[in-house]
Specification:
The complex is a heterodimer of chains A (321) and B (349). Chain A is an alpha/beta fold and 321 residues long. Chain A has 13 helices and 13 strands. Chain A has two domains: 134 residues, Periplasmic binding protein-like II (D-Maltodextrin-Binding Protein, domain 2); 138 residues, D-Maltodextrin-Binding Protein, domain 2 (3-Layer(aba) Sandwich). In chain A, the strands form three sheets. Chain A has a six-stranded mixed sheet. A five-stranded mixed sheet of chain A has the order 8-7-9-5-10. In chain A, strand 7, helix 6 and strand 8 form a beta-alpha-beta unit. The longest helix of chain A is centred in the N-terminal third of the chain and has 21 residues. Chain B has 349 residues and is mainly alpha-helical. Chain B has a domain of 198 residues: MetI-like fold (Orthogonal Bundle). Helices cover 73% and strands 1% of the residues of chain B. In chain B, helix 4 runs parallel beside helix 8, helix 4 crosses helix 12 and helix 7 packs across helix 8. Classes of the chains: A alpha/beta (321), B mainly alpha (349). At the A-B interface, helix 1, helix 2, strand 2, helix 7 and helix 8 of A face helix 4, helix 10, strand 1, helix 12 and helix 13 of B.
Chain lengths: 321, 349
């Protein structure tokens, strides 16, 4: 082939760098400089935290943005713990949380000079599930003590028949649950396993299959003959054709029992808002919108709503602050 | 290419009929076929399963709609734009650095202490010559600094180059999440870049830098040394020979390596999550890479991950599959560009 001229060389380099840009520019054009109708609020709101709460906050952000196109809201889902880590450094305005803030996180926020409001936006219930067609015996009920015996750090239970105080059949027990990054994991350990002598929350046994993706847990439980797993109520609701939910201490999980708190493993879902950020009008307007519409947003995105009095209380806190 | 007319060895001269049947040879051949079938089969199975699930959701609307919390309205635009900007930044940063580093490591670093000393001496002589012709003041000072630096480098250069050499190969094997942590520490914490597309693009750039360097070095090495020597024999300096003879000839290979490296970068999720990747943003990132420091860090793999995680698998699963198809499509386009460029610039010796 002929000698390559300098020009063609330059062209080649340019082509390599620009090809992406050209592709990009090609489908650009319709950049959305939405006409600034509606609200005249401007600014950016950074949210991070629980991947359970994330979709609800995203829905709120999307609807708020329709009326306030100049407010950009970004929602990350690095987990409740990961969210608090950046929140307490003052890097985010709002932190999604699937459990209440922990003592060490309170300390971190204090150190970072971040004051906050805790606002409840929805509910969830940790649901204990097995495969729909699993023949395990028992009466469809597990007590918290039984759960502790199964999941506890020293548990050697390998078969359903070994679960104390139940008349389960002799089926091999296969456990699946969230990994330690998850707020669900923290909540389950606190509620079911309790604390050791020093006051630290116990960790569960290590020989269960842990996953960050609840859909993986759904599949693990559904596929095993004697499977048991736990995750947020929505994942059970979506997979009712494949899974059965255990009653806990005699109460079956449902939207009603979870909202009212009768279900023993029900938990509130929160957003934590930095007080400093609340002084920005766009943040305050967004949080207000979020709380006022929390129930309809929850229904739309298949969350269990928070009780109305909790939402009213959150709004009161917001307006007072 | 030299046509190989191999000399007839005694084994080949033997009549075919008397060649022994070798079971091990046949078994080995089939083992090789099987391993190819397994590798390709897995890929085909993956592709078909994604295609059957995602094809129905794939449409122009899907590409041009904003992200949404309603599966019926949700589109891929935010993530697609984010990934395009990420790739622009990655290429713009990693390619010049990678090509320069590869050229240095392949053509300049291997010089020995003696060679470097000769260069330093030659520069000293040139300096004196120019001083005789009235070089003075600040320019003389600069020239003196240059000569002194050459002398120092003749001593410390070779060992430093060896250390760099060993470490570049090691860097290519470092897990990508480590680069995420590095990016978070270096760009976000130390340099104060916000958790944006810029931080993500820079992180991906250092992630693929070793890959680009290694591929480019291979390409430069493949250029026959006679080309460079010929140029130098005609009076070109080392830099002139490398710039106008070696690099143009190595360019196709270097470009191929680059595009393969960016193909890896576009699928990376873990480092972006560490640097602060978001699952959702109301804002579609601007395609202008100069504004990237201000844009939410969104990318195709992040969006796919978010969709796969959601409880309503029947709603979001097809969207995730369609997203994977777009990602694969982008990859194929990038590889096609690599092939076109390679064919355009390649020459044979």
């Amino acid at each position: 082939m002929a000698r390559i001229s300098r020009r063609r060389l330059a062209l080649g380099c340019a082509l390599a760098t620009m090809s992406l840009g050209v592709v990009a520019a090609g489908c650009g054009g319709d950049d959305d400089k939405s006409s600034s109708s509606g609200g005249d609020l401007k600014g950016k709101i950074a949210v991070d935290g629980s991947s359970t709460v994330g979709p609800l906050t995203s829905a709120a952000a999307e609807r708020f943005n329709e009326d306030n196109p100049d407010v950009d809201i970004t929602v990350g889902t690095s987990g409740t713990g990961g969210g608090f880590e950046v929140f307490c450094k003052g890097e985010t305005d709002i932190s999604d949380a699937s459990r209440a803030i922990k003592d060490e996180e309170v300390a971190a926020c204090k150190k970072g000079g971040v004051e906050y409001e805790e606002l409840r936006v929805a509910s969830d219930g940790i649901t204990i599930v097995s495969g729909k067609n699993a023949d395990l015996g028992g009466d469809g009920n597990l007590t918290k003590d039984q759960l502790k015996a199964v999941w506890g750090p020293d548990s050697k239970i390998k078969n359903w028949s070994e679960i104390p105080g139940g008349n389960f059949k002799g089926v091999k027990l296969t456990l699946a649950g969230p990994d330690s990054q998850s707020g669900t994991y923290d909540f389950f350990n606190e509620e079911v396993l309790g604390e050791d002598a020093k006051g630290d929350t116990l960790a569960p046994r290590q020989d269960y299959s842990a996953s960050a993706d609840d859909n993986v847990i759904v599949r693990a439980v559904e596929g095993a003959e004697g499977g048991m797993g736990y995750f947020g109520y929505t994942y059970y609701e979506e997979n009712q054709d494949k899974l059965m939910a255990w009653k806990v201490d005699g109460v079956a999980p449902s939207a009603e029992t979870i909202t009212s708190g009768d279900y023993p493993l029900s938990r509130p879902l929160f957003i934590y808002v930095s007080k400093k950020s609340l002084q920005k009008p766009e943040v305050k307007a967004f949080v207000k919108y979020y709380l006022e519409n929390a129930t309809s947003l929850a229904e739309e995105t298949q969350f269990v709503p928070a009780p109305q009095d909790a939402l009213d209380k959150s709004l009161e806190t917001l307006n007072a602050g | 290419m030299a046509t190989t007319a191999a000399p007839q060895s005694s084994a080949e001269a033997r009549p075919l009929a008397r060649k022994k049947f070798q079971p091990a040879e046949v078994a080995f051949e089939w083992a090789l076929r099987l391993s190819i079938a397994l590798a390709l089969g897995a890929l085909v199975w993956l592709f078909v399963s994604v295609l059957t699930e995602g094809a129905s959701s794939l449409s122009w609307d899907f590409l041009t709609s904003k992200a949404s919390s309603s599966a019926a309205r949700a589109g891929f635009k935010n993530a697609l734009y984010g990934s395009l900007v990420l790739m622009m930044i990655t290429v713009a940063v990693a390619v010049p650095l990678g090509f320069a580093a590869a050229t240095y490591l392949e053509k300049f670093a291997p010089m020995s202490k003696d060679e470097l000393r000769v260069i330093a001496m030659r520069r000293q002589r040139a300096l004196e010559h120019r001083r005789g012709h009235g070089l003075s003041g600040i320019r003389l000072l600069l020239a003196r600094i240059g000569v002194a630096a050459s002398r120092v480098w003749a001593t410390i250069g070779p060992p430093i180059n060896r250390i760099v050499e060993v470490n570049i190969s090691n860097l290519a094997a470092v897990p990508s999440i480590i680069y995420g942590l590095l990016g978070l520490a270096l760009f976000v914490s130390i340099m104060g870049v916000s958790k944006s597309l810029l931080a993500g693009g820079l992180t991906l750039a250092i992630l693929v830098l070793p890959i680009i360097i290694i591929a480019s070095r291979e390409a430069i090495r493949a250029v026959p040394s006679s080309i460079e020597q010929g140029a130098m024999a005609l009076g070109a300096t080392k830099w002139q020979a490398v710039r106008s003879q070696v690099l143009p000839a190595a360019l196709p290979g270097m470009l191929t390596g680059t595009i393969l490296a960016t193909s890896r970068a576009i699928g990376e999720t873990a480092p972006l999550i560490v640097v602060g990747g978001a699952a959702y943003s109301t804002k579609v990132p601007s395609l202008n890479p100069l504004q990237a420091g201000d844009q939410p860090l969104l990318a195709m793999p992040l969006q796919i991950f978010d969709w796969v995680e959601r409880p309503q698998e029947t709603l979001w699963g097809p969207l995730a599959a369609a997203g994977i198809l777009v990602l694969i499509g982008t990859l194929v386009v990038m590889n096609l560009i690599a092939i076109v460029l390679r064919n355009r610039f390649s020459r044979s010796w």
